[in-house]
Amino acid sequence: MPLLPQANTVPAARPSSAGVAPQSLAPRLAALVLAAGAAASLAYWGLKISVTRSSAAADVAAPARLPEAAAPEQVARLLAAPASRTEGKPAASPGSRLQLTGVAAGVSGRGAAILSIDGGPPRPFAVGTPVAEGLVLQSVQGRRAQLGPDRQGPSTVVLDLPPLPR
Length: 166
Known about the structure:
Strand content: 15-25%
CATH topology of the domain at 94-160: SH3 type barrels
Structural class: alpha+beta
């Protein structure tokens, strides 16, 4: 077998072990970071929109049947509340049920009063509106509110604000 003469050849230069020149790595890394950020943003907003739509649909759904309202007498009896009026005891005057907590008086006769009824939360009432059964806010002036059975009739209840602390 004839032997071929061996030539003294230098092997060709191989690329780096990563297969990529170091100068072209930065743009590829930037593209990877941008693509990951876009995918994360898309996933976040997709989940946020799907949750909003499903909760909005749950809010719109109405119950099949609403429960009937119970009569106040039945509720009082169930809770063993005492009767609202006892025999032989006079009914409280309309003015004793009301407490004046604020006044907004205008020059032209318009205004409003903030009243608490039966110890409840204070509510605003404009002049001329009904406050309680048989009582209409007739006028407000200074630190006083006048109430009566109708807008133009005589005042049956006059409420004054408590004095200012000194």
